[in-house]
Amino acid sequence: MSAIPSEFSNVTAVAKANVYFDGKVVSHSILFGDGSKKTLGLIYPGSYHFGTDKAELMEIVAGGCVVKLDGAEATSSYAGGEAFEVPAKSGFDITVSEGICEYICSFID
Question: Could you give the number of structural domains in the chain?
């Protein structure tokens, strides 16, 4: 897997935040010229469940988390520089124990 990007050029940033779980998870969307979209976000300590419509690539920029994909028995831990994929029409539980987990979510067609 390639390195997690540290910046994006020539994008449109959506000013309105996506706010979940009473502000414990916040992201902003960025739109690319080819029609693709990513979100850049922060997850504060806690446990959360997200459902997916499209498949997603979650790249952890900083911090860490523990993830359990829907239907999986085991959890996996991820730290800055690591990533995981979530199938379309499924979901995942994500837990951040301390600090802030920073992420990039790419929507995969």
Answer: 1
Rg for the chain (alpha carbons), in Å?
13
Q: Are 85 and 55 in contact (CB under 8 A)?
A: yes
Q: How many residues does the chain have?
A: 109
Q: What is the CATH number of the domain that holds 51?
A: 2.60.120.10
Residue-by-residue pLDDT tens, the chain, 109 positions? 568 988 999 999 999 999 999 999 999 999 999 999 999 999 999 999 999 999 999 999 999 999 999 999 999 999 999 999 999 999 999 999 999 999 999 998 7
DSSP string, the chain: -PPPPS---SEEE--S-EEEGGGTEEEEEEEETTS-EEEEEEE-SEEEEEE-SSEEEEEEEESEEEEEETT-SS-EEEETT-EEEE-TT-EEEEEE-SS-EEEEEEEE-
